[in-house]
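Give me structure tokens for this 714-residue protein.
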Amino acid sequence: CMEQVCGLRALYEDALKGKQQQRGTLGFDTTDSSSDISENNTLIHYIARLVVGFAENQVRLIADHPRESACLRLVEFVGLCCQNPSLSLCALTFDFWYSLQSRLQSNEDRRIFRDVYVALLGALVDHVQYNPEDMESKDDVDQFRDEAKDVFMEPFDLLYGEYFSIIFGAFANALQDRNWARVEALLFALCAVGDIASAEHLNADFFQMVNAFPNLPVREVPIMRRTLSALLREYSSVLQSKVSIQFIGWALNFLLEGVWQFSDEVNSSQRMGGEFASSVPGEPLEAALETAEAFRDFCENSSNLLSRHQQGADLVTDLVKACIDKVSTLPYQVVKVVMLGLAHCVQALEQNQQLQQQFESNYDTLFAFCENRLRQSLMEHVRDASGQNTSPLTTPLQAHTIEQLISHDLNVLDMCVKPFDGKHIHLFLLQKVQQVWELSQQILMQFANSSVVVEALSSLYFDMFVGVGIHRETQQFLFSMMDLLTQYFGNFMHPPVVRLISFIVNGSVDRSTIDLFVSRFPTLSTQILSSVSAQTVQQLQNHSEMMQHFFRLLIKVVHVCPQALESNQQVLEGIFGLGLAALTLPDRQLFLQVESWYMTFLGSGISQHHFNEIAGPLITKLFVAMLVDRETHYGRILEYFKKRHALVLQAFGLNVLMREEFTRVPLDEKKRFLRELNQTVSVNQQQLLIGRFLKEYDARYGGKGSQQGGNEDI
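Here you go.
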């Protein structure tokens, strides 16, 4: 079969040649030649679809016998179809290349197809190249690029370093010919494998191309700027150990220039009512955002190199100054990303003790700029509220309401904090926390009902606390923030409060913070429980994450200070009640968290009195819920009771049996529960238990238990 299919190659090549020859005769006999070309197009497509479909069906046979002549010829035929000028025919082969590469067992087998994969690489580069004389085809090429990007990885998986050498040869020729469309297509081929290329793959040919990047005519060829920006982002982590600080400086400034250029196009498009021809594929805002993200990632990955040199510190200072002068003209989405990149650069200087002065100076500049923006936005809101500001709200951040503007400014300020981990500069950053505290109170007073503003504010403080760490100097701010948020929300179910509580629960905090938290726990838990009590089951389900954090917090409190719970009966009853409510929700993770809390609490040495008076009656309800649900792990808690509280289990078991809900428990579960209960009590206690049960059961059904209750229950 393979031989027969490969026999079609001559027919395919003849049709392809005939199509090319007839194209040359169009000026002489348009009607006949057009008809012939159409017939040849149809024949070419039919043959290509047949060959590719057959090869896909036989890919396992090809992979098992790669040295068979027919297999090699068939793969070469598929490669020939990929070289067809038609983008759709080339895309038709993609699934075959994926399947073949995944099935070939060894590198030796793969090397058999080396020439085919080299030809595939050349065909892909040809197809992703834009035609400067036919920009109407740009959308088709864009779509093909999206589909083909992953296919470049197939030849790379075989060629590795040779991949870059092949690209370099074509790159050098294109540079010599000043064929910038070809250069840009080759940059795209490099970018496509950036995710999987490691440092050992990057050979001398690759770095010869890198050294040529600063001399490329990106101003004259705008599409090249976007591709080169994406390439720098993909290789940002592996470039740092191989390039100079001068190259880092060029790359960061190049990326910033791209941000300015594409952002200017965004602003021009808005001024012209959206009718603006972008210099690159896609929307200009998309290009600006992608370039800003490349800048951010390159900044983050360059931090080690920047921290080693005085030149790095000078470069950071220049970047901060350039951005502060220009950033106000950028779209909001872009501002956030650029500021985060700058913060990574500034934070890098903090790693070098000799650069501390420049670190603090640059960080003060960055933070002050963002803080002043926020203060100006607040002043604008005050003028609006007083009626003094009659002009419509206009801002380069593209906020349509004052609430959006405030939240934007808070998010931008947040970007200055994110890179810090609290290991070295917590006291320096603490000063910034104190600076923003006054602003936070003003913001909450004016925007308490704005979810976007409060969410942005809480995110800022959350990242600040992550940056500075929780210790004696910062814990008061943490709890003050929690009090302030609770005051304005009226409950603890709001996401910002959840984040702060989760930070205490999951973070690494010192003993003084835990002690302070425990001292406030009765008040805190009462507020949480009052928030929950008014919630319906559906509402509780929406707050599942909050409840998980709360029970993690309870476990932590039990470990540190169990008497904080045992001494407050009202709080303890509320917690058990919340646990029961949580167990009614279809949330597996929440159930396991509640169960863990019960096990931890029961193992904490709680007194018999508190157990009998508080825990027993409430856990009776718990067991009924668990018995009805076969999927739960109630057996773990039940086993614990059997070993530790046999007498309580007697009364507890009777209470379970007498509840109405027990009638819904499946018969085999009832038997299992009664057998386990029976093993923990004496014969006299058994008689007492069964006697009381029958008496209550008979009373419930008016002496007609056997008729109405059914023999099963009896």
